[in-house]
Write a structure and sequence with these properties.
Elements: H1 5-28, E1 37-40, E2 57-60, E3 66-73, E4 80-81, H2 83-96, E5 102-107, E6 110-111, H3 113-121, H4 127-137, H5 142-150, H6 153-159, E7 162-166, H7 171-188, H8 195-213, E8 220-222, H9 223-230, H10 234-241, E9 248-250, H11 262-273, E10 282-287, H12 294-304, E11 311-316, H13 320-334, H14 345-358, E12 363-370, H15 373-376, E13 386-392, E14 404-406, H16 412-423, H17 432-444, H18 449-462, H19 469-482, H20 493-508, H21 513-529, E15 537-538, H22 539-547, H23 550-556, H24 574-583, E16 587-589, H25 607-611, E17 613-616, H26 618-628, H27 635-654, H28 658-678, H29 683-700, H30 703-718, H31 725-741, H32 750-763, H33 768-788, H34 793-808, H35 813-830, H36 835-846, H37 853-869, H38 873-889, H39 895-913, H40 920-932, H41 935-938, H42 944-959, H43 962-974, H44 986-1004
Parallel strand pairs: 3-5, 4-6, 5-7, 9-11, 10-13, 10-14, 11-12, 12-13
Antiparallel strand pairs: 1-2, 1-8, 2-3, 15-17, 16-17
Helix pairs in contact: 1-7, 1-8, 2-3, 3-4, 4-5, 4-6, 7-8, 11-12, 13-14, 13-28, 16-17, 16-18, 18-20, 19-20, 20-21, 21-22, 21-24, 22-27, 27-28, 27-29, 28-29, 29-30, 30-31, 31-32, 31-33, 32-33, 32-34, 33-34, 33-35, 35-36, 35-37, 36-37, 37-38, 37-39, 38-40, 39-40, 39-42, 39-44, 40-42, 42-43, ...
Length: 1005
């Protein structure tokens, strides 16, 4: 469609002003030496010839002498600039501005081949030769040939300084180029811009050019004014936008360190920026021992260059669980409207990598405290406009990384500066004596940052400051000699001694009974913290695990997180305990537990207290553990910590507080790992394993990890001197389910099924409700399993025994629901009820408000199947609309929904190929649900991914989406269809064949 005249004129002006802006930006960047201002649409100049339309803008120097005279010519798509037209414009320009140093005809039109030759001819410096070549080139244009011959010697010299500047960029490409240059310019000046604000800045600068074009300020925009507008205060831009859109920090980014280490930051900067920018993510590994300053260096760099990035992401990689939790926070930030329902760690990782690669702006990711390089690599983004910094103490794992920055001890100057920052509030009191004492202190501490922080905490607490240095050094020398065996390899002995002196001071600081209680609780708390993950340890959990015995909690009847409320009657203050530890620099305040959650989740009471966390350096944890292990019984310490941690974990699981649950998992895993390392077992640790397994499976789908946890729990329970039949039963039943999900055959389950039967009989009288619920659950698992595999004689007998036992046990709400669901599921398979009767039974269950959410999803799925069998497509669509809602919001197992998609999909597919158009809305709803199902988890059933692929292809054919049809058909043609060879899969084989034919036909039309 041709442009209207008004549109063409508007486009021409827009292009002209964007080009003017580009030339001004080049002058601001120093690429146009001698330029001090721009004259926009100049109507009055010092030149003798008055031809205002010949020049669109001038770049002028001091005294308004023209440095560059420019004319901008734009045209619509496909327009061409001929040699005669170009020459006519240039001839006017050199006459209108005789004193200009250079002339540019800037155009987005395609150059005719002769216009390209004209540009080459203009490079001739001999006036006579230039005239001759121009005459030959323009011989078919008598008017312009005559114009050539009329040019004087000086005019030909001026013409040799003129050029045609072709510009093939589309308007959006030009704007994008300008945005990036403006962002880069501001970043170099430490002013920063995001994409939105860069676009806003571009529009603002264009408007300033437009004002001059309209005659304001006599058309003059000085370079000083332009730079001032270009470097508008960040706060003003943020106020205009309503928010900053650059330098945004996501995750628990530490505060900016107050000790500058510029040489270290420069090495990191070189490693990340030494090659040209592209869309390949560059990574830098910052390596060094614990307490040397790796995290501080990464934090300092992140704060220092934040204005160069739109977003800065901080991830904790201390453990697998911590990394998954960090990625969930990152996912919520990048895709806040996308639910994480049923997203396991593999899907989460791939989705975040895809989101990062699609970001238009620049980003920085810091992966803090990583260990094994091979395990981390699959998580690292490889595409996008980003940089990644990895901090690690595992120098051997990263030894072959191409960009490494090794962090060494502080220089003497830096170390003394750190002492001065910590101990001298007033520089006026810093003397040569102080300098000497500080130098002696840091020399003895081998310039180790953590050791210096600890020593300064001690000296500040003594209130004598540096005057106490000789006595302090004597103390740590004695400690260093006494504890030589506890020093980790490569660490200075004085660092360990400084930690021990700090711990000793806490114990000796008490002056009365209340302070003694606080000191004891602080030491017990840091002991507990030494067996947890090092970051974001909930303060209330740490203290409760240190001072609240399990028996006291059980007597109180309270459940969930124990919160110690501050009150005059309470002899222990969590705040005072926290202060005691921070005073000695043993811990730091951490990010709130809920930090990074998409919405603040306020399930439990006292959320502020629950959210407060601390962080502790790993070397402090190592030293504390080294002092304890072998010297005291750790079983009570770890068991009490396990008891309180599993209480918190269970609360967050029950409340579906997914974010806090994920933040707690690293601490539960750390406690479990240390208990395993030390060979410690107890009932509380067993229960912790169980809840940890539930957390892994419930939202991550990490079946292997969940099974390992349950097997660890079972090992503890079966090793007990006194049996724990209820706990063992509660462990074996979900373990059987996990084993089936991993593909275990029915005969592999026999030992567990036999033991489940024995245990249920044992507790049938003492705990009948527990027995009934657990037997009902295992029967559900077995019912699903026997649909796919014919049970052998032994398994069949065990199933019969369990059914007989279930019939003898009293019914509970859960067992009644499970039994009825089992009967409905069986009826759908063997047709011992009519579809209408099945429908009525499902509706009766759904009308019961006591039906739990997990079972409700199951019943809705069964109801949808019953309606599909009746070809009641409107009703089926309504039930699938409910399932679609659960698929996007529920954190529960997706298998019931996937089973419904499978069974109803078979009915819908058959209806579709039989031209039953009434089923089409259900097909659309099925495809919508499939998008939200976790394919990695479904892939454990070998036929599920193929069947879902067929349904998606069927939906693409129905919508007429040729691109998706082509892509899905290609995937189907390479898929392994042998999974449909079984006799009972004949329906799916027919649907697959017919769908392939329809897709092929649709693409050939």
């Amino acid at each position: 469609m041709a442009e209207r005249g008004g549109q063409a004129a508007a486009f021409g002006l827009q292009y002209q002003y964007l080009v003017t802006l580009e030339e001004l930006l080049a002058a601001a960047e120093g690429l146009r030496p001698g330029v001090s201002a721009a004259l926009i649409e100049p109507t009055c100049t010092r030149e003798a010839v008055h031809d205002p339309d010949a020049i669109d803008f001038d770049l002028v120097g001091a005294g308004r002498t023209p440095v560059l005279a420019a004319q901008v010519k734009s045209g619509g798509p496909g327009t061409e600039l001929s040699a005669p037209a170009a020459f006519a414009v240039l001839a006017r320009m050199i006459k209108a501005r005789p004193s200009a140093k250079t002339y540019s005809l800037i155009t987005n039109m395609r150059l005719h081949v002769k216009a390209v030759r004209l540009n080459r001819v203009l490079g001739l410096t001999d006036p006579d030769e230039l005239r001759l070549e121009l005459a030959k080139l323009l011989e078919r244009s008598p008017k312009q040939e005559e114009n050539v011959h009329s040019l004087g010697h000086d005019e030909l010299l001026r013409l040799s300084r003129a050029r045609i500047v072709p510009d093939s960029r589309e308007p959006h490409e030009l704007r994008e180029h300008l945005r990036e240059r403006i962002r880069r310019f501001r970043s170099q000046q430490r002013s920063g811009l995001g994409l939105r604000s860069a676009g806003r800045m571009t529009n603002h600068l264009v408007s300033e050019i437009f004002r001059r074009a309209c005659g304001e300020f006599d058309g003059v925009l000085t370079l000083e004014e332009f730079r001032s507008e270009l470097l508008t205060e960040s706060t003003h831009l943020a106020h205009d936008l309503g928010t900053f859109d650059w330098g945004i920090m996501v995750g628990p980014v530490p505060l900016q360190p107050d000790l500058p280490r510029p040489e270290l930051l420069e090495r990191i900067h070189r490693a990340l920026t030494e090659s040209p920018e592209d869309r390949v993510v560059r990574t830098c590994a910052v390596l060094g021992l614990s307490g040397i300053g790796k995290t501080s260096a990464a934090a300092a760099y992140a704060h220092d260059v934040a204005d160069s990035y739109d977003q800065v992401f901080w991830l904790d990689a201390e453990s697998d669980a911590a990394l998954v939790a960090s990625y969930r926070i990152l996912h919520d930030w990048l895709a806040p409207r996308h639910e994480q329902a049923s997203m396991d760690s593999g899907v989460l990782r791939n989705r975040v990598r895809a989101l990062l690669s699609a970001l238009p702006g620049r980003w920085l990711m810091v992966v803090d405290n990583a260990s094994d390089r091979r395990e981390l690599l699959p998580w690292l983004p490889t595409g996008g406009r980003g940089h990644v910094i990895i901090t690690s103490t595992n120098q051997s794992s990263w030894a072959t990384h191409p960009r490494r920055v090794n962090v060494a001890q502080l220089t003497t100057e830096e170390a003394v500066s750190l002492v001065r920052l910590r101990l001298s509030a007033n520089d006026a009191f810093w003397s040569k004596t102080h300098e000497q004492a500080a130098t002696e202190l840091v020399r003895n501490l081998e310039h180790w940052p953590l050791a210096i922080e600890l020593s300064c905490g001690y000296l500040a607490g003594c209130e004598l400051g540096l005057a106490e240095v000789p006595r302090y050094l004597e103390s740590i020398r004695d400690r260093a000699l006494d504890d030589e065996q506890s020093v980790p390899p490569d660490y200075p002995r004085t660092l360990v001694a400084a930690i021990l002196v700090a711990l000793q001071r806490i114990g000796r600081a008490a002056k009365d009974r209340r302070q003694q209680d606080t000191s004891s609780a602080a030491l017990a708390s840091i002991t507990t913290a030494s067996y947890m993950a090092s970051r974001q340890i909930p303060l209330q959990l740490m203290v409760a695990a240190a001072v609240l015995p399990k028996e006291s909690v059980l007597r109180s009847g309270l459940k969930g997180p124990m919160v110690m409320v501050e009150s005059p009657g309470n002899s222990l203050s969590v705040l005072e305990i926290h202060r005691a530890l921070r005073t000695e620099s043993l811990v730091q305040r951490g990010e709130p537990l809920s930090a990074g959650a998409p919405n603040r989740q306020d399930g439990p009471e006292h959320t502020d207290e629950l959210d407060e966390t601390i962080s502790i350096n790993e070397i402090v944890q190592h030293v504390v553990r080294g002092r304890l292990e072998g010297a005291c019984d750790l079983e009570p310490i770890l068991s009490r910590a396990a008891f309180h941690t599993q209480g918190w974990l269970a609360e967050f699981i029950d409340d579906e507080d997914e974010h806090r649950m994920h933040q707690l998992v690293p601490h539960a895993q750390s406690l479990a790992d240390h208990a395993l390392r030390l060979g410690i077992s107890s009932d509380d640790l067993a229960v912790l394993y169980g809840n940890l397994g539930g957390a892994y499976f419930r939202t991550d789908g990490r079946i292997s990890e969940a099974r390992t946890c349950l097997e660890s729990e079972l090992a503890i329970l079966t090793a007990r001197a006194a049996p724990a039949p209820v706990l063992e039963l509660k462990t074996r039943v979900p373990l059987v389910d996990l084993m089936r999900r991993q593909g275990a055959r029915l005969d592999e389950l026999v030992p567990h099924l036999r033991r489940i039967s024995e245990l249920a009989l044992q507790v049938a009288e003492s705990r009948p409700d527990d027995a009934a619920n657990l037997v009902a659950n295992v029967l559900v698992t077995l019912r699903t399993a026997t649909h796919r595999e014919m049970p052998g004689e032994l398994v069949a007998r065990l199933i019969a025994d369990l059914r007989a036992l279930a019939a003898r046990l009293p019914t509970t709400e859960v067992s009644e629901f499970l039994a009825e669901i089992g009967r409905i599921s069986q009826a759908l398979s063997d047709k011992n009820m009519t579809d209408n009767e099945i429908e009525q039974r499902c509706r009766a269950l759904l009308d019961d408000p006591r039906l739990p959410v997990a079972l409700r999803i199951n019943v809705i799925a069964l109801l949808a199947e019953a309606l599909a069998f009746q070809k009641c497509w409107a009703g089926t669509e309504a039930e699938f609309a409910k399932l679609a809602s659960y698929a996007t919001t529920s954190k529960l197992d997706p298998m019931p929904i996937a089973t419904a998609v499978h069974n109803v999909g078979l009915q819908v597919g058959m209806a579709f190929i039989q031209n039953d158009t009434a089923a089409l809305p259900v097909l659309s709803k099925l495809v919508e649900i499939i998008k939200h199902l976790d394919e990695d988890r479904l892939a454990r059933e070998p036929d599920q991914p193929l069947k879902l692929l067929v349904l998606r292809l069927l939906g693409a054919v129905d919508r007429g989406d040729r691109t998706e049809t082509k892509s899905l058909l290609a995937a189907l043609e390479t898929a392994d269809t042998s999974v449909l060879d079984a006799a009972h899969e004949i329906g799916w084989r027919v649907i697959t064949l017919m769908t392939t034919r329809m897709a092929t036909a649709a693409l050939s039309d």
